[in-house]
Amino acid sequence: MRGVEMAKHRVKGLAFASVYVDDFEKAYRFYAEVLGLEKEYDMGSAACFFKLPDNTGLYLQGKNKAASYGEDTMRTAFVFSVESAEATYERLKAAGVRFIYAEPKHMGGDNYWFQFYDPAGNILEALGGK
């Protein structure tokens, strides 16, 4: 019986990620046009929900002031799963996206990873095959 009770309050997945931005219109164009996310519905004049192919989602909320942070501040990031890290990197580079590293890093096997910024300065990541 204890095992059944424990299973009821375990995390079973990620429903969606929330991204808070200052300029909703600029961020919306980035997530929709540059990253190619599909908007599922609007949530007022400065928020929307994007549905991802794996049935999770991304909630984009505008009109937020970024918290001040220093070099030692911990931050949360999330990782997009992509088919090809190199192809995604090149597409984002052509769109003028800012990156943390000069190219995708090999993480072992057929896994390549890179970090980049959205227009509000949030750190995003991508992981996929070469």
TrEMBL record:
Source species, domain of life: Bacteria
Family annotation (CDD domains): VOC
Pfam families, alphabetized: Glyoxalase
Residues covered by the VOC domain: 13-129
InterPro entries in alphabetical order: Glyas_Bleomycin-R_OHBP_Dase, Glyas_Fos-R_dOase_dom, VOC_core
Gene3D superfamilies reported in the protein's UniProt record: 2,3-Dihydroxybiphenyl 1,2-Dioxygenase, domain 1 (3.10.180.10)
Protein name, per record: VOC family protein
